[in-house]
Design brief:
Blueprint lengths: L5 E6 L2 H9 L4 E4 L12 H10 L3 E5 L11 H17 L3 E4 L10 H10 L4 E4 L9 H11 L3 E4 L10 H11 L4 E5 L7 H8 L3 E4 L5 E3 L20 E3 L3 H12 L2
Parallel strand pairs: 1-2, 1-8, 2-3, 3-4, 4-5, 5-6, 6-7, 7-8
Antiparallel strand pairs: 9-10
């Protein structure tokens, strides 16, 4: 692994992909439904982004919201999705499966790794839900993952910086550690200096974009009651550019 300065844009729409690429993204993590932590994007969205932007694209493979304990049908779904996106030209996939006791499920992960042969694999923040991050680190290395996306098992990377630093030292160049959650222009330099990590992941969303709807049915919700139907969350190009400039200067 390299730990060369790299910034990955976490995006769930063509508009956010455009903003991230214009802002200097080295790579995209393409998802759907970031408001619930991200799920597998549609193949149509992948085709659009692949066609329109000359940037590396890793695809999140997550069949649903919730925990990372998957039944056989969900595992089969994830396997098929990886094969499909690899054939469509994805540069990598982003995956994670846990056991009921909070360990990486090495057997099921190995099955997905086989489906991803020839492309990069990032272990996503299921890592942050493991009970022993150092054991999970070693399992990820043994499986052949190229990157671990982590906040240091904290609500944000700045809050998890102590563990991030220890993980970086333990990794010892065998796998890239990518800091994610709470990565903003005001946190990148301090995180890099403290942890040694120079690979960062951000959605660079600074606030909701107001819907273009003029007629609004405020008494009906089509999703989570805590989320407004009339606020759209997208990557902010200027925030992303500021983050990218800081990362690329490391």
């Amino acid at each position: 692994m390299t730990n060369l300065p790299l910034i990955e844009g976490c995006v769930d729409s063509h508009a956010s992909a455009l903003a991230a690429v214009r802002g200097g993204a080295d790579r995209l993590e393409l998802c759907a439904n970031l408001s619930i932590g991200g799920t597998t994007p549609s193949r149509a969205l992948f085709r659009q982004v692949r066609q329109d932007f000359q940037v590396r694209i890793n695809v999140l493979i997550r069949p649903r919201f919730g925990d990372f304990l998957y039944n056989p049908a969900e595992l089969e779904e994830m396997s098929e999705e990886i094969e499909a996106f690899r054939e469509l030209g994805a540069d990598g996939v982003v995956i994670g499966i846990l056991t009921p006791s909070g360990e990486l499920n090495a057997e099921q992960m190995a099955r997905l790794m086989e489906k991803a042969r020839g492309i990069d694999v990032t272990l996503h923040r299921a890592f942050d839900m493991t009970h022993d991050p150092f054991a999970a680190l070693e399992t990820a290395v043994q499986l052949g993952c190229t990157t671990i996306l982590t906040s240091g098992q904290a609500p944000s990377a700045p809050a998890g910086r102590e563990l991030l630093r220890e993980l970086f030292l333990r990794a010892d160049g065998r796998i890239d550690l990518m800091a994610g959650a709470g990565v903003k222009q005001g946190t990148i330099q301090e995180l890099a200096a403290y942890t040694g990590i120079r690979v960062f992941h951000t959605s660079a969303r600074t606030g909701p974009v107001d819907s273009g709807m003029t007629y609004r049915k405020e008494t009906v919700s089509m999703g989570l009651p805590s989320l407004s139907e009339y606020e759209l969350w997208r990557t902010d190009e200027e925030e992303f550019r500021a983050c990218a400039e800081l990362v690329h200067a490391l």
